[in-house]
Design goal:
Elements lengths: L5 H12 L4 H14 L6 E6 L7 H8 E7 L3 H10 L5 E4 L13 E7 L8 H11 E10 L10 H5 L1 H10 L3 H10 L3 E13 L2 H9 L11 H17 L6 E11 L2 H6 L1
Parallel strand pairs: 1-2, 1-4, 2-3, 4-5
Antiparallel strand pairs: 5-7, 6-7
Length: 260
């Protein structure tokens, strides 16, 4: 499957298409805090930080410093302009080559990033390298063998086929990280409010801010949008779009697993 270049077109729509409400950010930060080391402040790596959707909130919640590492220059530039925070530093880098010293972070967040990583074993080794003993890795990602019945699959059925190929299985992911010394300690399921109504959801999808769109044909996309528009027109009282999301939690040491 071809690599998505976020500097080509995704950067221009990502912030609008993938915007998070303050309530959604707070829900995710609460989920992250449930699994983070208890001491404060924490040094945090937001790996694949994109336009900085979570990076400032991580600094507010955990004290910082927080490093947003992002390979796409245009995504990083948007973060530097629109998601500034005194405890946040944005850096160029990749999961396979993280520009931070050994044992320098207490917490690493990968939010919808793993499918874009070209060399997952190398990336897992890098995360293990920069985590301190007792540190946690929070991996928010769908898994091919745990794909939920997402609403947009009803209108874009080939998206499910694409994502089943794009995402690793849970077993593949945990095995890759275990080989680097990071062991699973929890698998949380977090409800995420994507939109307040089907109409808002359709407006977001129309921006094509999901990388999956780059693997669909124009026929797939136009047909899906037409079906979605028909559903919006038929909707009576607006209902929020809420879906369950997996959050895999891994720890650096066996001792930390025993305490979990």
């Amino acid at each position: 499957m071809k690599r998505v270049d976020y500097d080509r077109q995704q950067y221009a729509v990502y912030a609008r298409a993938r915007a998070l409400s303050p309530t959604a950010v707070a829900q995710w930060i609460a989920a992250f805090a449930r699994h983070a080391p208890v001491h404060r402040p924490l040094t945090v790596l937001d790996l694949g930080s994109g336009t900085g959707r979570f990076t400032p909130a991580l600094a507010d919640a955990f004290g910082g410093p927080v490093y947003g590492v992002e390979p796409a220059a245009r995504m990083r530039a948007i973060a530097e302009e629109s998601a500034r925070h005194p405890a946040v530093t944005y850096l160029a880098g990749r999961a396979e080559r993280i520009p931070l010293p050994d044992a320098s972070c207490d917490l690493v967040l990968l939010y919808l990033v793993l499918q874009h990583v070209e060399d997952r074993p190398a990336a897992a080794a890098e995360m293990a390298r920069i985590l301190r003993p007792g540190g946690r890795l929070l991996l928010r990602n769908p898994f091919a063998d745990r794909l939920p019945d997402l609403l947009w699959y009803r209108y874009f059925p080939r998206a499910r086929v694409v994502e089943a190929e794009m995402f690793p299985t849970l077993g593949e992911a945990t095995a890759t990280f275990a080989a680097a010394g990071l062991q699973q300690v929890a698998l949380d399921v977090v409800p995420h409010r994507f939109a307040d109504s089907l109409a808002e959801y359709a407006d977001r999808l129309r921006l094509r801010g999901y990388s999956t769109f780059e693997h669909l044909t124009e026929e797939d996309i136009e047909g899906g949008l037409a079906a979605l528009d028909a559903a919006v027109a038929a909707e009576g009282e607006p209902q929020p779009v809420v879906e369950d999301c997996d959050l895999l939690v891994l720890a650096k040491s066996a001792q930390d697993i025993a305490r979990a």
